[in-house]
Amino acid sequence: MGLPSSTQFTWLYGLDRLMMGFSSQLEDETFDGIYPFEQVEGSDDANLLGKFSLFLNALQQARIDARAPQKMDRWVSLFSGWINSFIPSDGDYIHAYNGLKRVVDDLQQASSLAEVEHDLEYIVLLDYLDDKLSMAASRGGYYGHGITFSGLEQMRNIPRPVIGMIGMNNEAFPRTKLSPDFDLMTRNSQPGDRSRRNDDRYLFLEEMQSARDYFYLSYIGQSNRDDSKRPPSVMISELADFMRDLPKQEEDLEMQHPLQPYSRKYFTDGESKLFSYSRSMYTVSKTISGEQQNQPLFFGDGDRLPEADATFTRTSLKELVQFFEHPCRFLVQNRLGIDFREEDIIDEDREPFQLGGLRNYQLGQELLDRTLAEKPIVNYGTIARARGILPDGWPGHEAFREKIREITEYSEKLKQLLASEKMASLEVDLDLERYHLSGLLDSMYSRLPNPFSIRKAQRQRSAQALDLPPRISIE
């Protein structure tokens, strides 16, 4: 695409930050353009980071090895090494491990028989392996104990108690083979040529003859978009017509299932033979049908919280502010012990292409704090870029330059207010009937009407533009 090469916002970029955060204690600086990630600590994090690093390095090395053409022996060695590196050879993955090993061994034997000596591209071998694995997956399992899932194969007419065929819609079965335009056998068919549709019809007859107790056929009979009818396979239609013409009619020849798994038909006794074992869908069905409307209230009419203990009567200024900011949240968190705060999101999972939202506010607040602390902010763009706050390339440079201009203009006005006389800190220690209030009021200025932050400054400028009276607030 002609874009400049950069490791910004790549897996390698994230791994370098994690490694730097674990191995160094750098603050407010970068090392070789890498800013350490602070939240990596402890032996558990180190163990997980080590495993992730090994996996990512092995994946990167495999990507490098797959770029250049190789001899067949070299490819077989690489494939075997990748299988051993990425797939466990025991437990739940033993079948996948052995299956891949067999496919690679077959590849080596086929290349020896064909006497392949020239170099091969990775894409050629990938196409070969994809065909082999797809063929093995479509064959499915063989008849055994329990439930066996399998594709349709000829000469498998072994008697079984129950046989089910799903996905039997008109467009899916009998299957249609798409042939290329240069296939002369398809364009000029002759008697005796193989027909995929006829083969499927014969397979259907074999499966029906193999079923001893039940022969289950399933298809989507109605569209989930507009509820229009969808025809079944022609094999099902012919079988249904034949069954209806029999002198002795079978009951419940056809059963129609609802669209949703929480339909009340699945959970109503005696209405139909439909049933479900899902407890969660049963709860949803009862709720929708209105049978669970009389749920107990979180707080009943006669329910009262017990009296708070003595420690709750000693309140700090911070807790008092939290109460007036959100009384309901304060009650739930401090009296009921319920915390609704979500876990902190480490970072977004998409590369930023513009400075906006939380990143914009976070960068602006950090630049303002550095300006008020008389720290340089011009070179802070390197740290912001290494932390992933700024977009990569020219958009990031322009966004940082615009943010510098905005913060510089705002900080000059703010410093004029902060140049006024700073009031002495005030220690609060009050007894208010049953409660005791304590805390410390500091950072108060004689000419500072409002607490300052970027968002509050914007609201203050809007109020001045509307000629509103000044607002007094205490935090």
Q: Helix count, per DSSP?
A: 15
Which stretches are poorly predicted, pLDDT < 50 over at least 5 residues? 450-455, 465-475
Beta strand count? 5
From the helix content, strand content and strand pairing, which structural class follows?
mainly alpha
Helical amount:
40-55%
Sheet with the most strands, sense and barrel status: 3 strands, mixed
Mean pLDDT score, rounded? Answer: 77
Gyration radius over CA? 36 Å
The topology string of helices and strands comes to HHHHHEHHEHHEHHHHHEEH
Q: Termini separation (Å)?
A: 52 Å
- Strand order, sheet with most strands: 3-5-4
Beta fraction: 5-15%
Shape descriptor reads extended
Describe the protein.
This protein starts with 10 loop residues before the first helix and ends in a 10-residue tail after the last helix. The strands form two sheets. Strands 3-5-4 form a three-stranded mixed beta sheet. It has a two-stranded parallel sheet with strand order 1-2. 9% of the residues are buried. The protein has 475 residues and is mainly alpha-helical. It is extended and about 105 Å long. Helix content is 44%, strand content 6%.
Briefly say what this structure is.
The chain has 475 residues and is mainly alpha-helical. It has helices at 11-23, 42-65, 72-86, 94-114, 122-139, 184-187, 196-210, 234-244, 279-289, 317-325, 327-334, 357-372, 380-386, 394-418, 454-465, and strands at residues 160-165, 211-217, 314-316, 426-432, 435-441. A hairpin with a 2-residue loop joins strand 4 (426-432) and strand 5.
